[in-house]
Design goal:
It contains 15 helices and six strands. By secondary structure, the chain is mainly α. The strands form three sheets. The protein has a two-stranded parallel ribbon with strand order 1-2. Strands 3-4 form a two-stranded antiparallel ribbon. InterPro entries: LANC-like (IPR007822). One of its GO terms (molecular function) is metal ion binding.
Amino acid sequence: MENRIRHMLDALNNAVQTEDTERNISLMQGLAGLTLCNFYAGRYLNDPHYTRKGHECCDLLIDTINNNTYKLQNLFSFCNGLAGVCYLFCHLNEKKFLSFDINDGFGDTEEFLFNIGLKSLKVGKSDYLHGGMGILYYFIRRLPEEKMLPWIMEMLAAYQGKARIDDNGMRMMNTVLLGREEIEFDLGLAHGLAGQLMILAELKDKGIAETQVSYLIEQGMRFIEGKRRPLEATGRNSYYPTSYIEMENMDEQNLDFYTSRLAWCYGDLNQALMYLKMGKVLKKEEYIATAKEIASLTLSNDLYKTDKLNLFFCHGYSGLINVYDTIYRATGEQMYKDASLAWAETLLQKIDAHPPEQWADENNAGLLEGRAGIVLSLLTAQAPEAAGWNDIFLLNF
């Protein structure tokens, strides 16, 4: 396994062009993600070569920003924008890979992120990867930095102001997503309510705005639980829908949403992770029991769709390595560790069956949907103590 990690990371490093005038520096698709790979490989493979590469990537990141020679699909987002780049430096500080003064380096950038994040939440761009909630998540990680708390409180108020809350609970429109119905609510981790509740749980865990946050969590969980259906009613596809449309004559369409696949981004695994997070933060054993019930069912591969899995993190084998490892770390139940390692073995088999020239190119070098995510996932399978980077994907519990 280590040889594959080194070979893939070396290829990613060799592809970096120091004179590139339009460099993608993003966390999940670009240079920031590669920086993370090198630091983790250096520490957990005990190889100073990769640590040096990590520092070189940091220097290149900063030079690229200062020279304004970067390109980003979305200037502000956590996935493809400056929020993710700032998060990288925050993470590297936390994990003691380096010491970097974020206030000095990104003070103006953070103020820009606050303003655009607040506007995003006010118009329903609640997406964690591509909208305001990703910026909120970054600000939470920056606590106890003094300026963060008032920004967080304003963004939290904007989130609640845009939410729909009634007897059915709380749900949130996500105007980032295209091709959706007028009143459609996403329940997933990557773009919807499950991920948003996990971010709110970070505030609860830190004791911030406890009454307000507890209310939002309670109402959000009420909505999700209200959409749970017996397997017999969903064609034995899943307990929860990936999305839900609140319009008349949509029963058949909504039933189609009860088709779960094994993935980090969507499906019943999302709800298992959400319940685990809530159980830990709220100290409710019944939530942990619900999480275990859902998670154990996902181990039956004939029930959940795996035919569209790819090699990468978002909806592929790499993501499943980390999801099941997270569940194992949270529950201590060996069957989830076994599942994580089994998916790592499947990933290695798929890599060996398909030479890199068939699937590796400049468009899939990132963490979310590329080779950097494979590198870190295999590293975590080999060295479980290397799982700290999982907080990027809300798997930090």
